[in-house]
Design a protein that fits this description.
By secondary structure, the protein is an alpha+beta fold. It contains 3 helices and 6 strands. Strands 1, 2, 3, 4, 5 and 6 form a 6-stranded antiparallel β-sheet that branches. Strand 3 and strand 4 form a beta hairpin. The longest helix has 30 residues.
Length: 127
C-alpha cells in the first residue's frame, strides 16, 4: 500500500493525535482499531471507528491545518506513519489540476466537518 517510515504502538485508550494539534503525519492502521472523535461542548462524540488498512490524519496533512478530530486506539493498535517524502512525491506526480481537485475536496471536507460540529454544538447547548 504505502511505505511507512516508522511504526507506533498504542494501548487501549491511548491518544494517537488530538483535535487541534499539528497535522504533520498521515497514518495507516496496521492492526487494532482507531476511534475518531470530536469534543462537542463537554461531550466526546464518536464519529467513526476505523480498522486495519484505513488511513487517518490525511486531512490535516493535505490542508496544512490543525487536526479536526482526536484519534484514539481501541485495544492494542499499531499504526504506520506514511513516509511524508514518498507521499509528497506521489502527490506531485499528479497533474496540477488533479492536485487542485484533491486539495479542494480536502478543504471542503474540513469545512463540512466544522459545520456539522457547529450544528451538533448548538443542539448540545439547547439541552
Amino acid at each position: 500500500m504505502f511505505p511507512t517510515a516508522i511504526e507506533e504502538k498504542y494501548k487501549d485508550g491511548e491518544i494517537i493525535f488530538k483535535e487541534g494539534s499539528s497535522g504533520d503525519w498521515i497514518y495507516v492502521i496496521e492492526s487494532g482499531a482507531v476511534e475518531i472523535s470530536k469534543k462537542i461542548g463537554r461531550e466526546k462524540v464518536v464519529m467513526v471507528v476505523l480498522k486495519p488498512g484505513e488511513i487517518i490524519g490525511e486531512l490535516g496533512f493535505i490542508t496544512k491545518t490543525p487536526r479536526t478530530a482526536t484519534a484514539t486506539a481501541i485495544g492494542d493498535t499499531t499504526v504506520g506513519i506514511i513516509d511524508p517524502i514518498f507521499f509528497e512525491q506521489e502527490f506531485n506526480k499528479l497533474s496540477p489540476g488533479f492536485q487542485a481537485v484533491l486539495a479542494s475536496l480536502a478543504i471542503r471536507l474540513k469545512k463540512t466537518t466544522d459545520y456539522a460540529c457547529s450544528i451538533l454544538k448548538t443542539l448540545y447547548l439547547q439541552k
